[in-house]
Write a structure and sequence with these properties.
The complex is a heterodimer of chains A (about 300) and B (about 250). By secondary structure, chain A is mainly α. Chain A has ten helices and five strands. A two-stranded antiparallel ribbon of chain A has the order 1-2. In chain A, strand 3 and strand 4 form a beta hairpin. In chain A, helix 6 crosses helix 8. The mean pLDDT of chain A is about 85. In chain B, helix 6 crosses helix 7. At the A-B interface, strand 1, helix 3, helix 5, helix 8 and helix 9 of A face strand 5, strand 6, helix 5, helix 6 and helix 7 of B. Strand 5 of chain A pairs antiparallel with strand 5 of chain B.
Amino acid sequence: MSIFLPIAEMPVNWLIILALSGFVGIVSGMTGVGGGFILTPFLIFLGVPAPVAVATQASQITATSASSLWAHARRNSVDWRMGALLTAGGVFGAAIGITVFQQTLQAGQIDILISLFYVVFLGVIGSLMLFEATRALRGGAAAARPMPFNRPARTIAHRLPLQMRFPRSGLYISVLPPLAIGVGIGALAAIMGVGGAFVLIPAMIYLLRMPTNVVVGTSTFQILCVMTTVTLMQATLNRSVDLVLAAILILGGVIGAQVGARWGARLPAERIRAALALLMLGSGLKLFWDLVRTPQEMYVLGGQ
Amino acid sequence: MRRAALALALWLCAAGAAAQAPAQPDLPAAVTDAEISVSSDYRGSRLTVFGVNPDRRGRGDIVVVVRGPNEPAVLRRKRRVFGLWVNGAAVRFEEAPSFFTVISARPLRDIARPQAISELGLDPAAVARLEGGTPSDATARDYRQALARLRRAAGLYSEHPRGLQLHGSGLYSTKVVLPANAPIGDYFAEVYLFRDGRLVSSRRSDISIARIGAERLVHEAATRAPFFYGVFAVALALAAGWAAAMAFRRA
């Protein structure tokens, strides 16, 4: 059951990794929350070096987003023009993120940087999810309906220069906010090995005022393009993509996501979201605790 | 079967040793499994170092050392910044053994004089050569000891002062465990014969740990053609995603 990972240079039990990625795939298929947020901390807890975990995770997200983009494209729920704009920003952001990643790796602080990002995002997103899920559970069926979108009619996107028409979304807005959002998501993707849908989707709804039926498909398109770029850059610059680990993660992830999408409709979504939120908060707390408690061993090996 | 083969090998060594002239003591020693292949099921390996003490009256002590390739190492001491423990400034070692184990039948300090121990590099913490100075938070000695402690905790450095098995007639053997995290590269086993605290003779045999098959292919692709490796990783991901979409659409 043990397989030696050529880049991480360690043996792992591939059944555990497969089960883990399958489980995370099911959860993300059911809830729509990307798997990277949950899977990367678990890989780090299993002893996979953080840079390898983050870089390899990027290739897994490429696979899962490719699989779901197919379905979205067939349903015509992708705003390709907006997606291309977000991708342009995303690729630029990914380049910035990779540079930061590489510099931090060489300075021997990459584990700290990755942990810090995860602590912040797992904490914020886990709390928000838990808050929303418990409110829905307490309020019963009436409150379980999606929150009414209290969106401003015109946002900053309507006032900035360089306006452009987006026929699929029915928008006429400036190209600057989508580009800026893309840059931010791209940098997150490179440093954390996550797709960033959790930040991207609210930004598209509230800031760009895109219709909800194209939001998921368009974000999937952007994530696919950015993660492809991130995988290429991680492999070329940091040589930290482990193909064997990637193959196991991809296998578990794509099958799990499809199974999860099927089950999702039949299962109590709010409970699953609450459980997922607790899992995220738990992982975040563990990473935070490792950062603040006085270490027993004051020295670390590695870096350059 | 293995035991029988080992016994035969030991006997052959003993016979060979007996034929040697005692004036220039040769040190018969050999390593089983000197070529270790790392394939996808690699979980570390074990090898046996064996030989015979050529002294007819059985005087002297045998010490077996297995060393991994010397490599530069970087060590950092953690420090607290705004309540978080971050890694401090880097302290570089020009070279330090990446793997080191020393095996003897009784404690090393009873066998060899301190001078011999340091000259032969039998203490990995003393061998590690620092490059430049150390930050003010700790001394060079602290960093050296920390390096040895971390590697000991990872199973890369070890001392076995009672690990050498003596089988009579000067025959000795010992098992060496190379954990899966031991770096891949060229190792060597050294056998020393000490008498009255001084080195009498020594012998060195090579051990190689090398990747083979898919393991080798993946690693070489990742280091020699990183861009194409990345393209392959992306192609694999896209193909898997597409295949999953197809498979589940039909189902």
